[in-house]
Specification:
This protein has 451 residues and is of the alpha+beta class. It folds into three domains: 109 residues, no CATH class; 133 residues, no CATH class; 201 residues, no CATH class. The chain is 29% helix and 19% strand. The protein contains twelve helices and 18 strands. Strands 7, 8, 9, 10, 11, 12, 13, 14, 15, 16, 17 and 18 form a twelve-stranded antiparallel β-sheet that branches. The chain has a two-stranded antiparallel ribbon with strand order 1-2. The protein is globular. It starts with a helix and ends with a strand.
Length: 451
């Protein structure tokens, strides 16, 4: 069968949801990066409306999964094709592809930033917006909104920065907003503070634009602190920029027989762990001897106990981190603990009368081993690295960095753990993520959770 024929059959299978062809497609692209490239390239050129495929549960994976198997050296070609297709008019497949490549490898857009900037909000006639519960607006615009389209600017060159700075001086407010947001997404420390200071007032002003249908678009109000937090930075009391995370590509996974069973025919590349990727071991679960919660008086659960890791990969924070699973996000938003030299922990939270947990008392869950693995930077935003050590936190809500109970400085992000780590749901809600932070000067850890 000719190569073009299998691609046609695959798209028809996606449209009509034919299981046997979907399995054939998955096997082909998972094991052949060139086949993955050919499949996605055809989609950019020929698929106009992904809604044609609503009957297929595999469609959300069309680009987010298959693009993951395209080799690094061919991503720039896909990026160029997606941008060129977008210049002809709104294209949902091209938009999804740009977003996914930007998340995995923003450097693939080298030489395309000026075209991308011109495409931002190029088609306001197709914009739809509706009030939300907080007085702002949700915005949908056939993939041409700045949430998705600014991410290709991460780590852009000095030449692109100077181009954006020239656009930020424009008398046109929308042009300024676009340029400043792209500068913020560049995550370049040399421009972050001034960019956030210039951008924050624009988020509080009237709507940025109104299309012919009278539908207006605005941005949520954001402070300088909010904008910097979104990129993992904060300001010291002297006004200097401070990074609030340690760059790392480490994940915590379960390597038992049950966790290796793939629930779908689309295994993500991050799920293929080689022996060389394993850099250490850890565990989750079990009670912390002699430590109780200062709010409810219940036992603390050892949420993570790290084994020895190579210093070149990780040298931050304590080796033992614990929380009260009954009080996290229920009794108090931030839970803090002091770490003593002998390895013991003590809760810094206090209640005059012991709080009765809202959902009843739950004993610490049984300990279970976790493996620390080194991951490809391409997968850091894939959704498959739910339990990560270091790196930029993947917040499900607004980014936040709690302040140390002792010195009142913003704390550095250490790690995040999904509510089902260890094979059970320890969180009070059916889904959510816990985030751990650390103040090295005071030896204090803090936890927040986002449902």
């Amino acid at each position: 069968m000719a190569s073009t024929d299998w691609i046609s059959d695959a798209y028809e299978a996606l449209r009509t949801f034919r299981d046997e062809k979907l399995t054939e497609l998955a096997h082909r692209v998972v094991n052949d990066s060139d086949a993955a490239f050919d499949f996605v390239r055809r989609g950019i050129r020929e698929v106009e409306d992904i809604r044609e495929y609503e009957g297929s549960f595999e469609i959300p994976r069309l680009f987010t999964q298959i693009v993951s198997y395209v080799s690094n050296d061919r991503l720039p070609e896909l990026a160029r094709l997606a941008v060129e297709r977008s210049e002809l008019g709104p294209s949902e497949p091209a938009s999804q592809l740009i977003r996914e490549i930007a998340l995995q490898a923003p450097q693939a857009f080298q030489g395309l930033h000026r075209q991308l900037f011109d495409l931002l909000w190029l088609h306001p006639d197709v914009q739809v917006a509706a009030p939300d519960d907080f007085g702002g607006t949700y915005i949908w615009q056939a993939g041409l909104d700045w949430f998705d389209w600014a991410s290709p600017f991460e780590g852009c060159s000095q030449e692109v920065v100077e181009f954006l700075q020239s656009k930020a001086a424009s008398p046109d407010r929308l042009e300024r907003f676009k340029a400043l947001w792209c500068l913020l997404e560049s995550s370049r420390p040399d421009v972050l503070v001034k960019t956030a200071q210039a951008l924050a007032p624009l988020t509080s002003e009237p709507p940025l634009l109104e299309n012919r249908h009278g539908i207006r678009a605005r941005c949520y109000r954001k402070s300088v602190e909010d904008l910097l937090h979104a990129r993992g930075y904060g300001l010291t009391s002297e006004g200097n920029l401070r990074r609030l995370f340690e760059p790392a590509n480490l994940a915590l996974i379960e390597l038992d027989a049950d966790s290796q069973k793939q629930p779908t025919i689309w295994p993500h590349p991050s799920e293929r762990i080689a022996a060389a990727d394993i850099v250490g071991h850890s565990s989750t679960g079990g009670a912390v001897a002699g430590a109780t919660c200062g709010l409810c008086g219940g036992p603390l659960t050892m949420l993570l106990e790290l084994g020895e890791l190579p210093k070149s990969l990780w040298s931050r924070g304590p080796s033992r981190l614990a929380i009260c699973i009954d009080c996290i996000e229920i009794a108090q938003h931030v839970l803090s603990y002091r770490h003593h030299v002998d390895g013991s922990l003590a809760s810094l939270d206090h209640a005059d009368l012991a709080i009765e947990p809202e959902f009843g008392r739950r004993p610490p869950y049984d300990a279970k081993p976790l493996t620390v693995v080194r991951t490809n930077p391409r997968w850091k935003h894939s959704g498959h690295m739910k339990n990560q050590l270091g790196g930029l936190p993947e917040y499900s809500q607004l980014p936040e960095y709690p302040k140390c109970q002792s010195c009142d400085r913003e704390m550095e992000f250490l790690l995040q753990l999904d509510c089902d780590v260890g094979g059970r749901t320890w969180f009070a809600y059916p889904s959510g993520t816990a985030f751990a932070f650390w103040c090295a000067e005071c030896s204090i850890s803090a936890w927040i959770a986002q449902p």
